[in-house]
Amino acid sequence: MMALALAWVCACQRAGGPSSANTAPSAPPTRAGSHPASASPSPSAQEPLKLDHFYRLCTGEARGFPTKPYRGPGPHRIVLVPRIGANGSFWTSPDYRRLPAEWDIEGAASPYDIELVACMTRTDGAHISNCLYKQLGNLKLHLGHYSVVVKETSTGTEVARFEFDATARTSCPPAAFANTTLSTSATPEELAEAFRAVATATV
Length: 203
Known about the structure:
Region (Disordered): 19-46
Radius of gyration: 18 Å
Number of helices: 2
């Protein structure tokens, strides 16, 4: 994401390395108190709620939206709002659908049915191997380390906070950017395990 030149290669070499276990919660979270947000307005009655509005809950630009509250038994719909690096920008993409169908935004009748937003920051974790590219030389491969804050979309209240490492897929990617490090991405299975507690909780 950070570099200028993209090189495509057919193969790379890697050495084995350590892995780190997920630390996502295994039990339904307790509800936390409200967090203050900036005074930036939420969508008005004249501006229908869209998927690309939800990142504002992660940046503090919105206090909440007129969505379905996080109440009752699961499953609960979650929109994933990722960013790369602690100083990166949050974004909401309609293509970022990697959770089980009953929790995903894909099955929501409208954005107003989404109860939770997951603000996900991916940074470089432990160095696990090197990837050799013909045009770029050796690039370090790290575990992708995810720091996650889950908020209720209707109030902006934080309901869970956890971290986990992406350990399931540690092979070198076929393409890389120059002058950067590489990190692994969470698989759909790892995301499902990480969000199971908040998605299936009875609140």
